[in-house]
Structure formats: C-alpha cells, structure tokens
From TrEMBL:
The active site is at 117 (proton donor), 257, 350 (proton donor), 371. This is alpha-1,2-Mannosidase. It comes from Gossypium raimondii. InterPro entries: 6hp_glycosidase-like_sf, EDEM1/2/3, Glyco_hydro_47, Seven-hairpin_glycosidases. GO terms for cellular component: endoplasmic reticulum quality control compartment; membrane. Residues 584-598 have a biased composition (Polar residues). Gene3D superfamilies: 1.50.10.10. Belongs to the glycosyl hydrolase 47 family. Residues 1-24 form the signal peptide.
Length: 615
C-alpha cells in the first residue's frame, strides 16, 4: 500500500521524538536483575490480592479489594495463572492450585459463556498446567497428580462442541455449559472468535486420542477462509449460518487479530501445512493492503478502500508474530511506532487516530493489555537490541506508577488523565507480567522453563505454554518440525504419493504459492496416537530427505534432460514479505529447534503482480 500521507512528516517527528530522547540511558545489567525481581513482585502483589480478596470468584476488583464473576464463576484468574506460577518456579503454590482445581472445579453449571474466552483462558490454562504437572522433564511434576486437569479440559471442550453445529462450521459465539446453544443465540460471531481455537482443541485431540476437537476447529478455519474476498482479506464479523459478512472491515486488530496468529502457530506446533498455506496468503494480503509503513489501517475487504486510519491496541501483537514468521525489519519499524504511542500517554489507548494524532473518541482506556509487551519480548529475543529492555523498563514504570492499586493493578479508563477503574483482567497475570518477566530474565541469563526447558514452547494467544512434545507435534510418526524427532523404524519411509501430485491449485481466484503442496492427514484416532519417547531420536534424521527433516513437502520436480539448473533457484526471498522460519541467524533463541536445523529458511515464490514490496 502506498503512503497515505495522513499527517505531515514533522508531526510524526514530534510524536516519535520523545521515544528517542527517553531511551538515551540504557538499562544496566544490575538494573535488569532488579527489574526482573520487580516484575516478579508485581505478579505476587496481584496474585496474592486475588487469592486473599476474590478467590474463588473469577476476577479481582483491585481498588475495593473485592471479587466478581465475569466469565463462568470458576476461579478464572487462578486457572489463567497456573503456568505463570510454574514458570516462576513456585512449586508450592502451583501444586496447591492444581490440587484445589482438580478437587473443586466442575463445569456442569447453567452458565452461558464465550467460546473464545473460555477456550483461550480456561481450556488453555488447564491444558498448559496439565502438561507441566504430569511431566518429570519440566521439573514441576506433581507426584499425586492423576490427570485431573486433563479430564476437566476434556469435559469442558465437549460442552463447547454444540456451538460448532452450524451450516458453515464456524461456531456460535456463546454456549451454555449445561444446555448447549440457546435458540435465541446470536448468529453473528467475530473472525477471531471462530478462528482462534485450533491450538487448544488440537492439543486436546492429541492428548485424548479423539480427533473431534481438532476437526471442528479446523473446519471453522476453513469455513472462514473459504469466504475470504478476492483480495484474500477477511472481515471482522460473519453470520455462522449464511456465511455472509456482516462487517467487512479488514484489519489486524479488533475481531480479527488472533486469526492470523493461530494460522502460523498451528503450523509451528502441529506441522500441518494447510495452516501455513493459508497464513502465507493471508499475511501477503495484509502486508499489501493494510500496511501503511509503519502503521496498519482497516480497509474494506472487497475494495481495499480505507475505512479506519486507526492504531488499535490489539494490533500490537503483530510485530511479535512477524518475528515468528521471520519478517523482522517491518516488525522493528512498527514496534517503534506503536511504542511511541505508549511513550506519549504512558499507556496505549484502545484506539489512536492516525489522521489527527489523538486518542480516538470512546477508545481512551487501557485494560492492562499485554500485546505491546509480547512484541517487545519477541523482538528482544530476535535482535538482543537493548532498546527493548529500555522499553520494558518504561512499561514497568507506567504500570507501577499509573496502574498499581491496593490489591492488584487497575484498568486505566482514560490514558490522558490516568483515571483508574476497579477491575483487573485475568490476562494480566497470564500474559502481561509473564512477558515482562521473560524479557528481563532473558537479558539476565535465562533459567526458566521456556528458555531452558526440555521442549520448545508455543505461546497461545492467552500466553499459555504449549510444548512441542512428540505426542503433540508428531502426526503419523512424521519428523517433528521442532528438533526433528523421528521413529527409528521409519527413517527411510517414502513420502506420500499425494505429496507429489499437484502442480498448482486455484483457490478463489488466487494461486497457492508454488513450491509447496498440501499434505492431508486423516482425522482418525490412529493419527493422534501418542508416540513413545523411547522409540525416538532427537536431532537430524539420517536417511530422510530434506523435506522430511523439516516437516515440509515440496512439489515433485520434473526431471528433463536439459533442465536448467537456474530453475532450481527460483525460490527467492521477497523483501519483507516472504514467510520464513525463525532461525539462529535472526534469533539466538529460535523456535525451530537445535543445531543446524535453525539455519534453514523456507520461502515461497510469489507472483510478480502480487508482490507487496512493489506497491
């Protein structure tokens, strides 16, 4: 997208200037340790406040030191905090919390709950804690634990399944945990609400050997993507019965954000290439039509006409996602722009108007969101640039002086006047302080489950830790994308015939990127059978093809007597647009495994006319 010249250049300079001035004095190593310890204290100030004044209600009212039920009335904040307790190494409270939940939590209740929020906060929290509490390798194994959280997770997910019974496969937005979908339930749901369920439900399928959970969520993603526009853009809200878009504003923020996030992360965690194909097309379209360097705007999904020149606070996750995709340069520029808004107000408002350079009317609040902090953590992990520690320090200062309340941390209802509101979302403990602590712990010299644990972890959109264990990341005993786990008996297994078939596919008028072919795995119980670790080796898989080593299937090349060798070099990285795998060349702490595996980047050939870098 060409520059829109929404504001004069000198106004941008005025907006960004305070940022450069403020970070002149870098964070020292000693200060980094102090900040890490300060963030730890922040967590316990809020967690202890919840346990003392609100538990077992869902969330804390930190100004009045009271509790309130906001989602389902089942100790939401405690469930959302479980893996943060484990990450901090708090064995005593982690154990006590898991045991209490196992004995007292039940979902056979007459409550209508959000599919999206219940999945990412409750289901994700239970699964993450189960995977930590049941595994000796995590160092937090609970001897008395007997899969109570997994049983609860499965029970909860089955109560959510009725929501998926729609003509499009896209779920209703809400469901009653006892009686199913109400006959008067709205048929309108958000794209994020229907497309941000794959990680939690997919992990559950692998842990229970029941494919139904993964199948329904994958069908939901397919249902959304099948209704994309000819520009490969999706809208914000859709009718789950008719498949008609009821709000056609396309963006990377509110109502759409985590749809993009889970496309890439589902591929990274499960190795399912269908998610990668969709992500590549969706990401390319977003960068072409939504990106107004360094900002992102909202456009009509059919015409690409701008409808909102607005920075939405939920957009702030995007630079972190770009790090995972390996698109670092635009991530750096966008983070700098987003953080300039934080510096201006001390927080990021829900909406910042790019045309007037002011807080959008009616969107002045900051509900302790983690997205900007999340991206700060990922960019520091990728670049080790100390300016991201400076940013973290500024964020800590804002939270301590602007949001700290007697029993926790308060919403900011107006970022211009720092007016406080008596509410603390559970995600403050699940994400906001988690990413801050990880940022400073990484700088000090990490000694935690994420950086030094036995597995590579994918963070859910709620910040829950989902490990790439063989049981989760291996499907039909293929090599795992992370760390290349292989079955000794199938090292020389031939690729499926389907992997050699198509030359190209046409989808809704747009071509699937050349160089890749979709591998379809049957959704039967055998596909999800857990593979015993004893039968696996870690590292490069001897005897396998390059494609098998990295969990990638290529289109079969056609050998001709006079084949031009230059044709084999057609996969060219398109500047700022090619989707690559994060490697050690970018990040010392990559997500793509150990050893030489980390140096591989995979890109796709793109049609010249659709190359976003040319716009």
């Amino acid at each position: 997208m060409k520059d829109l010249n929404l504001v004069p250049t000198f106004l941008w300079c005025l907006l960004l200037f305070p940022l450069h001035k403020a970070v002149a004095n870098g964070v020292t190593p000693e200060e980094t340790k102090q900040l890490r310890d300060e963030v730890r204290e922040m967590f316990y100030h809020a967690f202890d406040g919840y346990m003392e004044h609100a538990f077992p209600l869902d969330e804390l009212r930190p100004l009045t030191c009271e509790g309130e039920d906001t989602l389902g009335g089942y100790a939401l904040t405690l469930i959302d905090s479980l893996d943060t307790l484990a990450l901090l190494g708090d064995r005593e409270r982690f154990t006590a919390s898991v045991e209490w939940i196992g004995k007292n939590l039940r979902f056979d209740i007459n409550k209508t709950v959000s599919i999206f929020e219940t999945t990412i906060r409750v289901l994700g929290g239970l699964l993450s804690a189960h995977l930590i509490a049941s595994d000796y390798a995590t160092g937090m194994r609970i001897p008395s634990y007997d899969n109570e959280l997994l049983d609860l997770a499965e029970d909860l997910a089955r109560r959510l399944l009725p929501a998926f019974d729609t003509p499009t496969g896209i779920p209703f937005g809400s469901v009653n945990l006892k009686y199913g979908v109400d006959e008067h339930e709205s048929k309108i749901t958000s794209t994020a609400g229907g497309g941000t369920l794959t990680l939690e439900f997919g992990v559950l399928s692998r842990l229970t050997n029941d494919p139904i959970f993964e199948q329904v969520t994958k069908n939901a993603v397919r249902g959304l993507w099948a209704r994309r526009s000819k520009l490969n853009l999706v809208g914000a809200h859709i009718n789950v019965f008719t498949g008609e878009w009821t709000q056609k504003d396309a963006g990377i923020g509110t109502s759409i954000d985590s749809f993009y996030e889970y496309l890439l992360k589902a591929y990274l965690l499960f190795g399912d290439e269908e998610y990668l194909f969709i992500f590549q097309e969706a990401y390319s379209a977003a960068m072409h039509y939504l990106y107004n360097d360094p900002w992102y705007v909202e456009v009509n999904m059919d015409s690409a006409a701008i409808v909102w020149p607005l920075f939405n606070s939920l957009q702030a996750f995007w630079p972190g996602l770009q790090v995972l995709a390996g698109d670092i340069d635009p991530a750096i520029r966008t983070h700098t722009a987003f953080f300039s808004v934080w510096k201006r107000y001390g927080f990021t408002p829900e909406g910042f108007n790019l045309a007037t350079l002011s807080v959008q009317h009616g969107q002045k609040s900051y509900p302790l969101r983690p997205e900007l902090i999340e991206s700060t953590y990922w960019l520091y992990k990728a670049t080790r640039n100390p300016r991201y520690l400076d940013a973290g320090r500024d964020i800590v200062a804002s939270l301590q002086y602007g949001a700290r309340c007697p029993c926790g941390y308060c919403h900011i209802s107006d970022v211009e006047f720092h007016k406080r509101e008596d509410h603390m979302e559970s995600f403050f403990l699940a994400e906001t302080v988690k990413y801050l602590w990880l940022l400073f712990d990484l700088a000090v010299g990490p000694d935690n489950l994420v950086e030094n644990g036995p597995y590579k972890y994918i963070f859910s959109t709620e910040g829950h830790l989902l490990p790439a264990t063989p049981q989760i990341s291996l499907l039909q005993e293929h090599c795992s994308y992370f760390g290349a786990y292989c079955n000794r008996d199938s090292l020389k297994e031939e690729p499926n015939a389907s992997d050699k078939s198509a030359d190209s596919q046409e989808t809704n008028g747009s071509r699937v990127s050349e160089g890749w072919v979709r591998t379809r795995f049957p959704l039967d119980s055998s596909s999800f059978k857990a593979s015993p670790v004893s039968g696996l080796i870690k590292g490069l898989c001897p005897g396998l093809t390059h494609a098998q080593k990295y969990g990638i299937s290529y289109l079969a090349s056609v050998d001709t007597p006079h084949e031009d060798n230059s044709a084999k070099k057609k996969n060219i990285v398109v500047k700022s647009q090619a989707i690559v795998v994060v490697s050690d060349q970018i990040s010392n702490q990559s997500l793509s495994g150990d050893g030489n595996d980390n140096n591989v980047k995979e890109s796709t050939e793109r049609e010249p006319e659709s190359d976003p870098s040319q716009s």
